[in-house]
Amino acid sequence: MKKFFLGIAALSMLTMASCDTSVDDSTTSVSYATLNYVTPLDGQSAPFITDAAYRYFFNLSKGRASVAMDGLSIDNVKYSFFTDTVPFTQTAYQVNNSIAFVNRITGVKGNVNKDSLLPVSDFNCEMTGLFYWYRNVIPGIDTPSLLSNDGTMIIMQYNIGQEYSVKTLQPDAFFCGTTHTSVQGAEPFESTDMAYRVKFNKGFKTVDVIIYNAKFSDKAPSLSAVVLKNLDVKFRSGTYSIEGTNIIPFVPESGALTEYKNYPFERFSLTITDKALTQAIISYRVNLHLERNGQEVVLPAEGYVNDASYLIKVKTSN
């Protein structure tokens, strides 16, 4: 069963934060550190990942917000900006038997480093708690951790003049969807219980992928977790993919990670498909080494997920 944070953070940050009530308007501010996927717009330079800090200022009485950023470093140059104020929206969503909220800020204007040649444009930001998140502890793998302390995830995109495209990137995310698998000699199998954690490693050149509740056919046993280590990150303009070949996976066993040579992955790929870097297509091929009638047989298995996302799909509440 999927486990996820219910998005109360985006509501609580506005209602529980310390507010300035000494004037007629009620105001508050919140700050978040983020990773940023930066793509140079010259068509030649390679994208890269770097961190930055963002501050969001809210006038709750007037329903308006502004944004400030600092700490973004590109080629040893520090970039910062602050914007004008614009209306923000808060939308309620029905999730199971609860109501969750998402705050959106769009269309802010400002100049990076106060340079009119570096305007902030195409700005879109969602502050949300509606994302999948497993708390399962896997031996040998870092415990999942959020960049924020209040359960808010920042999904944001903007341009810096004609120089750079900037998009927030999650260092730890759990992609969920419908996994379709087929094993030679077995009926096709579908599962919505499988989840794919993508955890960036130091330097952001590789990731570990942890597949939860891995199951390849109706009669096959379910593995609590399958770990694929040090898969390559392929940087592309405005997006990225994760790829690996000839991978010996690891599984938790007796409190440690153990090589699982019976299920070698011939290939694995996860390709980001949307502008916000939240959705993906996942595909892989596994060669299952099984014992039948005292002999080892090898059955190829294919798996794919066409609707993977780490954001929970929800409907607007009435």
Largest sheet: 10 strands, antiparallel
Gyration radius over CA: 22 Å
Distance between the amino and carboxyl termini? 27 Å
Average residue-wise pLDDT? 89
Structural class: mainly beta
Numbering strands along the chain, what is their spatial order in the largest sheet? 12-15-16-17-18-21-22-23-13-14
Q: Per the principal axes of the C-alpha atoms, what is the gross shape? A: elongated
Order of helices and strands, N to C? Answer: EHEEEEEEEEEEEEEEEEEEEEEEE
Low-confidence stretches: 1-11
Strand content: over 45%
Question: Counting H and I runs of at least 4 residues, what is the number of helices?
Answer: 1
Count of strand segments: 24
Bin the helical content: under 10%
Q: In words, what does this structure look like?
A:
- This protein is mainly β and 318 residues long.
- The chain is built from one helix and 24 strands.
- The strands form four sheets. It has a ten-stranded antiparallel sheet with strand order 12-15-16-17-18-21-22-23-13-14, with no helix packed on it. It has an eight-stranded antiparallel beta barrel with strand order 2-3-4-6-7-8-10-11.
- A hairpin with a 2-residue loop joins strand 6 (86-95) and strand 7 (98-106).
- The model is unreliable at 1-11 (pLDDT under 50).
